[in-house]
């Protein structure tokens, strides 16, 4: 690989590191956008089959060109700025919604060493970036200068801030037992232990000792991305489409892209932190990106499954679940894990 | 000028501009958003100083949590700017005094070599693989454990006080108990009665 790139590197000279990093960024973002496009199709298909329908099947063979058609439609629509809106902030809203959901991918490891920025504080970076995500929603809601977007964005922001706390505590448990903030090290630390030596690696992943945290992280992830059953942001019967009401065309599409990119991010993070990332579940099969993709696809399916299954939560129930159920559970589990690590029964030596 | 200095000046320029706009913006929401920008660029400057833990925590705590709640309040309130501007001239001397003090302090730190502060040795450069987070954690929980615990206790007291300030018992409030709701059985709600068909 190095020898192959040598002549290209000489061509660019001193600008090579920047060019190479940009190439890597494109190599992450472009497949991500394709995944987002086809996730929308997968969502409609999965929910369709769960409701004994067929789902989109008209555009292209088996409806496979549907996302392209939807994208083209949004691309050619006019972006209407409401007359009373704060124009600069109105445009800034969708940008701030999508930028953090793309920036977070910088530290996600796709394989052993396959990561854009192998930084020591990877998990902290993720926490910080995901906490910035809420600004897109707040700014969009306020800048639209209209009641429904404002109410919707208030709900969304309160919900995102609440569930971030539970998510943060779940991550603290993970970093306690792997003793590292580096996501690559977190995955590596899961590939060892008693069961790993017996050939059953999937039993030594974090999801067993941290089972409550695994569930809390997954559910908080669904709440954090404002997906059903926590999608009070766009409760059609109450606040229409929440903070996105006044947006049209690509400005709306950016919110849409951000939501689906966040879904994929939460799924891939759950895979990396709790079920061993790129590690293979049994020893006789090789590790690789394939496993990460499979695990991520499963969690994405859980997202869609939940949407097709559960009715929307009422808002006070959402807050109750976040503050009165999840945060106490996570707080207790942090202490349990810390005591467990210091006790002679510790399995993380 | 190397690249690092260049980045520093860019970040510093953005930060000074944002800080100025915080106090000059006419709209309070815009002022709060400029404060967010100032925090964010401050995080960038700390990153340049290789203090990645502090930088990320600044973004996480101030940008991600404190300013969100701040924006909430500012957005909900109907703030009358003209009333806020009343008494500007009477407060000006105090404000100006604090401002001058801050400038003098900063000048003392930045121009240290003119005041004989060069005796302070420059800290040695961190070696490769140095983890800011690990080092800070080690210091906080060993050498500075008592001040750290004291500070956390203080925050706990502040939290309890804030809760008690807003806590009020209202009479006649009806609320649902979700655990009671989900433990309901079909038999509690529906009664099936078998009734023979009647002929006229």
From TrEMBL, chain A:
<feature type="transmembrane region" description="Helical">
    <location>
        <begin position="123"/>
        <end position="144"/>
    </location>
</feature>
<keyword id="KW-0560">Oxidoreductase</keyword>
<dbReference type="GO" id="GO:0016491">
    <property type="term" value="F:oxidoreductase activity"/>
</dbReference>
<feature type="transmembrane region" description="Helical">
    <location>
        <begin position="20"/>
        <end position="41"/>
    </location>
</feature>
<feature type="transmembrane region" description="Helical">
    <location>
        <begin position="288"/>
        <end position="309"/>
    </location>
</feature>
<comment type="subunit">
    <text>NDH-1 is composed of 14 different subunits. Subunits NuoA, H, J, K, L, M, N constitute the membrane sector of the complex.</text>
</comment>
<feature type="transmembrane region" description="Helical">
    <location>
        <begin position="165"/>
        <end position="184"/>
    </location>
</feature>
<dbReference type="InterPro" id="IPR018086">
    <property type="entry name" value="NADH_UbQ_OxRdtase_su1_CS"/>
</dbReference>
<keyword id="KW-1278">Translocase</keyword>
<comment type="similarity">
    <text>Belongs to the complex I subunit 1 family.</text>
</comment>
<keyword id="KW-0812">Transmembrane</keyword>
<keyword id="KW-1003">Cell membrane</keyword>
<dbReference type="InterPro" id="IPR001694">
    <property type="entry name" value="NADH_UbQ_OxRdtase_su1/FPO"/>
</dbReference>
<keyword id="KW-0874">Quinone</keyword>
<feature type="transmembrane region" description="Helical">
    <location>
        <begin position="89"/>
        <end position="111"/>
    </location>
</feature>
<protein>
    <recommendedName>
        <fullName>NADH-quinone oxidoreductase subunit H</fullName>
        <ecNumber>7.1.1.-</ecNumber>
    </recommendedName>
</protein>
<keyword id="KW-0472">Membrane</keyword>
<feature type="transmembrane region" description="Helical">
    <location>
        <begin position="252"/>
        <end position="276"/>
    </location>
</feature>
<dbReference type="Pfam" id="PF00146">
    <property type="entry name" value="NADHdh"/>
</dbReference>
<keyword id="KW-0830">Ubiquinone</keyword>
<feature type="transmembrane region" description="Helical">
    <location>
        <begin position="321"/>
        <end position="342"/>
    </location>
</feature>
<comment type="function">
    <text>NDH-1 shuttles electrons from NADH, via FMN and iron-sulfur (Fe-S) centers, to quinones in the respiratory chain. The immediate electron acceptor for the enzyme in this species is believed to be ubiquinone. Couples the redox reaction to proton translocation (for every two electrons transferred, four hydrogen ions are translocated across the cytoplasmic membrane), and thus conserves the redox energy in a proton gradient. This subunit may bind ubiquinone.</text>
</comment>
Automatic annotation (TrEMBL), chain B:
<feature type="transmembrane region" description="Helical">
    <location>
        <begin position="6"/>
        <end position="24"/>
    </location>
</feature>
<feature type="transmembrane region" description="Helical">
    <location>
        <begin position="55"/>
        <end position="77"/>
    </location>
</feature>
<feature type="transmembrane region" description="Helical">
    <location>
        <begin position="144"/>
        <end position="167"/>
    </location>
</feature>
<keyword id="KW-0874">Quinone</keyword>
<feature type="transmembrane region" description="Helical">
    <location>
        <begin position="89"/>
        <end position="110"/>
    </location>
</feature>
<protein>
    <recommendedName>
        <fullName>NADH-quinone oxidoreductase subunit J</fullName>
        <ecNumber>7.1.1.-</ecNumber>
    </recommendedName>
</protein>
<keyword id="KW-1133">Transmembrane helix</keyword>
<dbReference type="Pfam" id="PF00499">
    <property type="entry name" value="Oxidored_q3"/>
</dbReference>
<comment type="function">
    <text>NDH-1 shuttles electrons from NADH, via FMN and iron-sulfur (Fe-S) centers, to quinones in the respiratory chain. Couples the redox reaction to proton translocation (for every two electrons transferred, four hydrogen ions are translocated across the cytoplasmic membrane), and thus conserves the redox energy in a proton gradient.</text>
</comment>
<dbReference type="InterPro" id="IPR042106">
    <property type="entry name" value="Nuo/plastoQ_OxRdtase_6_NuoJ"/>
</dbReference>
<keyword id="KW-0520">NAD</keyword>
<keyword id="KW-0812">Transmembrane</keyword>
<keyword id="KW-0560">Oxidoreductase</keyword>
<comment type="similarity">
    <text>Belongs to the complex I subunit 6 family.</text>
</comment>
<keyword id="KW-1003">Cell membrane</keyword>
<dbReference type="InterPro" id="IPR001457">
    <property type="entry name" value="NADH_UbQ/plastoQ_OxRdtase_su6"/>
</dbReference>
<feature type="transmembrane region" description="Helical">
    <location>
        <begin position="31"/>
        <end position="49"/>
    </location>
</feature>
<keyword id="KW-0472">Membrane</keyword>
<dbReference type="GO" id="GO:0016491">
    <property type="term" value="F:oxidoreductase activity"/>
</dbReference>
């Amino acid at each position: 690989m190095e020898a192959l790139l040598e002549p290209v590197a000489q061509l660019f000279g001193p600008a090579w590191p920047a060019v190479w990093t940009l190439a890597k960024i494109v190599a992450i973002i472009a497949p991500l956008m394709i995944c987002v496009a086809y996730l929308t199709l997968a969502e409609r298909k999965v929910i369709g089959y769960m409701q004994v329908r067929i789902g989109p099947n008209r555009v292209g063979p088996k409806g496979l060109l549907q996302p392209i058609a939807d994208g083209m439609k949004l691309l050619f629509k006019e972006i209407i700025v409401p007359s009373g809106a704060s124009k600069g902030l109105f445009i800034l809203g969708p940008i701030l919604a999508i930028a953090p959901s793309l920036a977070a991918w910088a530290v996600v490891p796709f394989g052993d060493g396959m990561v854009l920025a192998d930084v020591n504080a990877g998990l902290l970076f993720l926490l910080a970036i995901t906490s910035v995500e809420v600004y897109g929603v707040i700014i969009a809601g306020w800048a639209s200068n209209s009641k429904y977007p404002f109410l919707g964005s208030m709900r969304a922001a309160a919900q995102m801030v609440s569930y971030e706390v539970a998510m943060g505590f779940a991550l603290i448990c993970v970093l306690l037992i792997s003793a590292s903030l580096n996501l690559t090290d977190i995955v590596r630390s899961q590939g060892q232990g008693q069961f790993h030596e017996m050939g059953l690696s999937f039993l030594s992943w974090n999801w067993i000792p941290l089972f409550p945290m695994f569930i809390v992280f997954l559910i908080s992830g669904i709440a954090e991305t404002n997906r059903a059953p926590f999608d009070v942001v766009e409760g059609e019967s109450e606040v229409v489409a929440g903070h996105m009401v006044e947006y049209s065309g690509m400005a709306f599409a950016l919110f849409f892209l951000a939501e689906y990119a966040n879904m994929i991010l939460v799924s891939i993070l759950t895979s990396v932190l709790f079920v061993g990332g790129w590690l293979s579940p049994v020893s006789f099969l090789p590790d690789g990106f394939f496993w990460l993709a499979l695990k991520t696809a499963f969690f994405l399916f859980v997202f869609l499954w939940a949407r097709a299954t559960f009715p929307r939560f009422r808002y006070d129930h959402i807050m109750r679940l976040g503050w009165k159920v999840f945060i106490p559970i996570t707080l207790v589990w942090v202490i349990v894990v810390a005591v467990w690590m210091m006790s002679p029964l510790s399995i993380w030596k | 000028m190397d690249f690092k200095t260049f980045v520093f000046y860019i970040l510093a320029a953005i930060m000074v501009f944002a800080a100025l706009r915080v106090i000059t913006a006419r709209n309070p929401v815009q002022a709060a958003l400029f404060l967010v920008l100032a925090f964010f660029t401050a995080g960038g400057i700390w990153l340049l100083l290789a203090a990645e833990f502090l930088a990320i925590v600044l973004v996480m705590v101030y940008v991600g949590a404190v300013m969100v709640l701040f924006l909430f309040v500012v957005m909900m309130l109907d703030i009358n700017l003209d009333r806020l501007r009343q008494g500007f001239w009477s407060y000006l001397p105090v404000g100006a005094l604090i401002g001058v003090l801050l400038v003098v302090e900063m000048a003392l730190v930045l121009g240290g070599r003119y005041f004989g502060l060069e005796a302070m040795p420059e800290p040695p450069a961190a070696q490769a693989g140095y983890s800011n987070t690990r080092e800070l954690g080690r210091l906080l929980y060993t050498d500075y454990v008592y001040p750290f615990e004291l500070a956390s206790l203080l925050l706990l007291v502040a939290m309890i006080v804030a809760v008690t300030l807003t806590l009020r018992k209202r009479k006649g409030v009806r609320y649902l108990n979700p655990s009671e709701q989900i433990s309901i059985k079909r038999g509690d709600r529906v009664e099936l009665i078998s009734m023979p068909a009647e002929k006229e």
